[in-house]
Backbone:
């Protein structure tokens, strides 16, 4: 049975961060007094480090603040959780947000976990990737073929975001997210994402660690090592769209917003140059899937502040007509627009031209 949850504690690496509760006005959050002494704001704009009771009034995420909504599955992961709930006779859509968080517990993306938990412990997976891919497609495509291990598939992918089937696996003691092609994908989609990440790395971007896992049925399965996990603990991560309390499903962000956030919360302002390089790469390489959930910030305890997370979900999207994030309002920006934005946010033109030239040359070698 799945029980309704109306109060929840939020923890980070076994430390109590604060409390969530369903109240008449919505869903309230308050930091724990001990966290206020030496903790950090888990969402600097919406949840400053104060003893106030915070209630989200925008309701963009079902009453949750964006940072908590980031913990919930999206796309493929949400489908799996819905299927598992249906198996128990429960309609996932009708559950309140705290109950949904309890189903994720400590298995979600990012560093936060939630108690009470009704989540099943994640497994040290020894799944065969070919079998996982086959099971994933059976679920995604509603085939008549019976799914052999829905519980196992849920454990492997139930906290995943994004539309493509994927699994969270431990491989040689490290945690990875491995993606599988779905019905509408070309058979070499994994190889294409691998090539896109390789191109970004060659352009000098801070790219998340990645590899191509071999397959007998396709060109390979793309895998990305999880940067929200570290030895002995977790890393707090929050997406750009959630920081700004806006859904990524509606294209309403400009790269200017990214630079403004960096200026306000990042401990190392060199992140501005990294952000410019990622923006330039996306424009020149043709990655138009550059929405606010594909850009994140992590809390660096060494720096005592936020910094850009490694780049992830990098690919070419030739079928998308325009970028999810605009450049000074332009949906299909040019190099001139990139330099105009650099000037607008106060970046040195000469240095940005150098970054642009390097990216252009490296992309040209691969296309």
Residues:
């Amino acid at each position: 049975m799945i029980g309704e949850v109306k109060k929840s504690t939020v923890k980070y690496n076994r430390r109590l961060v604060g409390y969530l509760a369903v109240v008449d006005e919505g869903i309230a959050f308050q930091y724990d007094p001990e966290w206020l002494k030496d903790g950090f704001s888990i969402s600097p704009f919406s949840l400053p480090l104060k003893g106030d009771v915070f209630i989200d009034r925008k309701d963009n995420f079902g009453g949750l603040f964006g940072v908590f909504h980031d913990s919930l599955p999206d796309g493929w992961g949400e489908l799996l959780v819905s299927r598992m709930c249906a198996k128990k006779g429960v309609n996932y859509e009708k559950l309140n947000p705290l109950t949904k968080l309890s189903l994720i517990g400590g298995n979600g993306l990012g560093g936060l976990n939630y108690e009470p938990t009704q989540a099943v412990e994640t497994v040290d997976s020894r799944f065969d990737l070919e079998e996982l891919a086959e099971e994933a497609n059976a679920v995604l495509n509603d085939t008549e073929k019976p799914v052999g291990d829905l519980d196992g598939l849920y454990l492997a992918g139930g906290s995943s975001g994004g539309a493509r089937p994927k699994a969270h696996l431990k491989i040689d003691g490290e945690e990875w997210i491995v993606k599988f092609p779905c019905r509408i994908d070309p058979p070499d989609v994994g190889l294409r994402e691998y090539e896109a990440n390789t191109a970004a790395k060659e352009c000098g971007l801070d790219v998340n660690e990645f590899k191509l896992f071999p397959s007998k049925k396709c060109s390979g399965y793309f895998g990305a090592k999880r940067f929200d996990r570290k030895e002995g603990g977790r890393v707090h991560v929050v997406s750009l769209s959630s920081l700004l309390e806006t859904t990524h499903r509606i294209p309403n962000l400009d790269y200017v917003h990214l630079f403004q956030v960096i200026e306000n919360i990042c401990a190392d302002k060199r992140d501005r140059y990294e952000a410019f390089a990622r923006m330039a790469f996306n424009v020149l390489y043709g990655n138009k899937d550059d929405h606010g959930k594909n850009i994140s910030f992590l809390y660096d305890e060494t720096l005592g502040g936020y910094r850009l997370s490694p780049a992830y979900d990098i690919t070419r999207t030739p079928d998308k007509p325009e970028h999810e994030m605009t450049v000074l309002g332009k949906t299909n920006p040019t190099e001139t627009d990139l330099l105009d934005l650099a000037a607008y946010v106060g970046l040195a033109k000469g240095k940005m031209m150098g970054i642009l030239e390097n990216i252009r040359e490296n992309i040209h070698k691969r296309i």
